[in-house]
């Protein structure tokens, strides 16, 4: 009953005289409707076709509820690589630190695309403990995997990644060098004297 009352109030707020209120009401209403459809989405994950399951996993990204995590974590263990990839991407965007170990585990997934998405997903977590796991990928031959790891190192922004990124500037692949340069530009300053005016 409460959710229906909330939905009615938000629907009425779509007609508010202030544009910002109308925009906020539309955004809140979209989130509420996504939450109301959570049970339907979870049912699709249990019994629908593979393509519908993948769409359902992506739909969970819009829902803010702790109930989305068990099915997403379960999807990491299915045999279908596309389902694992989708789950890895959504878990990365959820930015819940409790799923980090699950994402790190998929850096060694048997399917290349899952590894790439796992490396990319880790960039959403500002946790310097991830640097060794991502740095280990920089020796791989898979260009997309290396680029994802480099982008994530840049997103994390910790200066500890600098030596590995500097080394990549000598890589034979221009795409890797470009990614390394961009990541170096995102690292935080480690020298406290940088940017200080001279006295």
User: What's the β-strand tally?
Assistant: 0
Radius of gyration in whole Å, from Cα?
Answer: 21 Å
DSSP strand content = under 5%
Discrete helix count: 12
The second-level CATH architecture of the domain at 58-125 is Alpha Horseshoe
Q: What portion of residues is helical?
A: 55-70%
Q: What's the helix-strand series?
A: HHHHHHHHHHHH
Global morphology: globular
Mean pLDDT: 90
Write down the CATH topology of the domain at 58-125: Leucine-rich Repeat Variant
Class of secondary structure makeup: mainly alpha
- N-to-C CA distance: 66 Å
CATH class of the domain at 58-125: Mainly Alpha
Q: How many strands, what sense, and barrel or not for the largest sheet? A: none
Report the uncertain regions: 192-199
Query: What is the CATH superfamily classification of the domain at 58-125?
Result: Leucine-rich Repeat Variant
Descriptive notes:
Among the domains are: 58-125, Leucine-rich Repeat Variant (Alpha Horseshoe), CATH 1.25.10; 126-188, Leucine-rich Repeat Variant (Alpha Horseshoe), CATH 1.25.10. The chain is 64% helix and 0% strand. The protein contains 12 helices and no strands. It has 199 residues and is mainly alpha-helical. It has helices at residues 2-13, 19-36, 38-47, 50-59, 69-75, 81-94, 100-105, 112-121, 131-136, 143-156, 162-168, 174-186. Helix 1 (2-13) packs antiparallel against helix 2 (19-36), helix 8 (112-121) packs parallel to helix 10 and helix 11 runs antiparallel to helix 12 (174-186). The chain is globular.
């Amino acid at each position: 009953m409460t959710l229906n009352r909330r939905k009615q109030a938000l629907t009425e707020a779509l007609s508010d005289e202030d544009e910002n209120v109308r925009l906020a009401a539309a955004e809140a209403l979209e989130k509420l409707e996504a939450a109301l459809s959570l049970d339907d989405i979870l049912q699709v994950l249990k019994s629908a076709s593979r393509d519908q399951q993948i769409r359902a996993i992506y739909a969970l990204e819009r829902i803010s509820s702790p109930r989305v995590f068990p099915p997403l974590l379960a999807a990491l263990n299915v045999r279908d690589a596309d389902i694992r990839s989708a789950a890895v991407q959504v878990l990365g965007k959820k930015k819940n630190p409790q799923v980090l170990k699950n994402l790190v585990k998929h850096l060694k997934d048997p399917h290349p695309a899952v590894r790439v998405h796992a490396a990319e997903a880790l960039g959403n977590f500002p946790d310097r403990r991830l640097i060794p796991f991502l740095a280990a990928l920089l020796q791989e031959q898979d260009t997309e995997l290396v680029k994802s790891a480099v982008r994530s190192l840049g997103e994390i922004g910790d200066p500890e990644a600098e030596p590995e990124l500097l080394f990549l500037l000598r890589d034979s692949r221009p795409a890797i060098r470009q990614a390394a340069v961009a990541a170096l530009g995102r690292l935080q300053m480690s020298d406290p004297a940088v940017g200080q005016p001279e006295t």
